[in-house]
Amino acid sequence: MARNPHIIQLPRWAIPENQVTDERLFLNRRKFLTQSTLVATAAYLPMLASAKVGDLADRLSGATKTVSHNEKLTRFEDVSGYNNFYELGTDKGDPAANAEALRTDPWSISVEGECQNPGKLTFEDLIAGQTMEERIYKLRCVEAWSMIIPWSGFPLASLLKKFQPTSDAKYVSFETLYDKSRPLPGQRRNVIDWPYREGLRMDEAMHPLTFVAVGLYGKPIPNQNGAPLRLVVPWKYGFKSIKSIVKIKFTRDQPQTSWNMLAPQEYGFYSNVNPEVDHPRWSQKRERRIGELFRVRTEMLNGYAPEVAELYKGMDLQKYF
Amino acid sequence: MPFTSWRFATFFLLLSPCVWLVYGFFSNNLGANPVETLTHQTGKWAFICLLLSLAITPARQLTGVKKLMLLRRMVGLYAFFYATLHFLVYWVFDQSLSVAYLWEDISDRPYITLGFLGWLFLLPLAITSTQNWRKRLGKRWLTLHKLAYAVGLLALFHYIWLIRADYREVVPYALALCALLGYRLFRWLKTPQRAA
């Protein structure tokens, strides 16, 4: 059957939320959000001082809702209380406990490398003019647990285009903050080689699913989840989604990435979720949704294969893992 | 305090982590990933009980309090108890009680292999912990129960191998095990009849 040219074919993940979420769940979520206001207010108290963040909160609450998974959302307390963010400590409770050590106001991001518009810009400049969306994505940690998280933000592509990358830009790399004179609690020890680094191939970075999150559950993103802005690449393991970005660089060559530098035989540059390629310590065939006791099967590319498998056509994914 | 009271105190003290975990599990108080908490805590207490059981002989030799030996069996059995819980939590929740999944993990992942071997080594020690078995085995009982040293090393490497990047947490266990095994090595080297 031929497609009707007058109907805009929305991508599979861009379905309005109310079409796929059971109304009862949807209302429960609203109820939960109301009930968690107290907790959330306490978490954001330092931020409330800034009027600009007030603007962001307004913009986030008006974000267009798009969704990728019809699954029960992971509780806000779990999303914000169970984190790997080694800058704030290696225990999963450390990031929330040490969240205040991360100062996100003022925040600036430097853009370098193979682009026509390099420079330094503030967080406010960076988000100005971006249309906010809410996207429910599945986050899969390499430790074989996963969460269903409502992020707010905008596609990375719409940010990167502003800097006009040249044809020499084959990759884009990211860095998290590291101030040697004022290290964060977890940075006082060389658990990894600071600053934390990540990178993507340009076509992965420009893919419509690749997202910059500035919000979580409709509110500005808590520090422990990578405030004020983080990357979300839903078909890759969680560590690929770098938190608290301070630097973006367009490069000709494949950039170095933190976990790959630490243990290249365990963490590849691509880090695609792949049930066929096990980590030496964690079988990747199955995963545990946070909030559930038993494991579920892991899907190829975290369930996003229909959208992104094309990017890896002809590549040996056992070799480029 | 009479010695039976010490035994009671030890019994309830070593049972308390288990009570706390069971209560935490049913009252939903074990954090975002309760299965992970159960696995880590039962593993930790198995290791602690094992180290404690290995500490009793040196403690007796150094203090001369012979009655300490009456605690050794109980502490050793607690090590087996927590190791068994540790294994069951992993088998039930991580491997869905499937023998195929379990075998695949044991054969594919060296740290799982070591952990499983450690539990297997504890099994004959637990079975032969009774007075009856002790009498029946005579001198061989002591030789058999030296397996506890191997279990200590297996547990240590099982732990080290699963750490992602931060090795700080394993240091106290490594130091304790080195001290306990080092003490035995030192005494063994000093024993004159060894040369004969």
TrEMBL record, chain A:
Its EC number is 1.8.5.-. It holds the Pfam family Oxidored_molyb. Residues 102-259 form the Oxidoreductase molybdopterin-binding domain. One of its GO terms (cellular component) is periplasmic space. Keywords: Metal-binding, Molybdenum, Oxidoreductase, Periplasm, Signal. Its cofactor is Mo-molybdopterin. It catalyses: L-methionyl-[protein] + a quinone + H2O = L-methionyl-(R)-S-oxide-[protein] + a quinol; L-methionyl-[protein] + a quinone + H2O = L-methionyl-(S)-S-oxide-[protein] + a quinol. One of its GO terms (molecular function) is oxidoreductase activity, acting on a sulfur group of donors, quinone or similar compound as acceptor. This is Protein-methionine-sulfoxide reductase catalytic subunit MsrP. It comes from Teredinibacter turnerae (strain ATCC 39867 / T7901).
Automatic annotation (TrEMBL), chain B:
It is found in: Cell inner membrane; Membrane. Its main location: membrane. Its cofactor is FMN; heme b. The chain crosses the membrane at residues 45-63, 75-93, 109-127, 147-164, 170-186. Keywords: Cell inner membrane, Cell membrane, Electron transport, Flavoprotein, FMN, Heme, Iron, Membrane, Metal-binding, Transmembrane, Transmembrane helix, Transport. It comes from the Bacteria. Heterodimer of a catalytic subunit (MsrP) and a heme-binding subunit (MsrQ). Belongs to the MsrQ family. This is Protein-methionine-sulfoxide reductase heme-binding subunit MsrQ. It comes from Teredinibacter turnerae (strain ATCC 39867 / T7901).
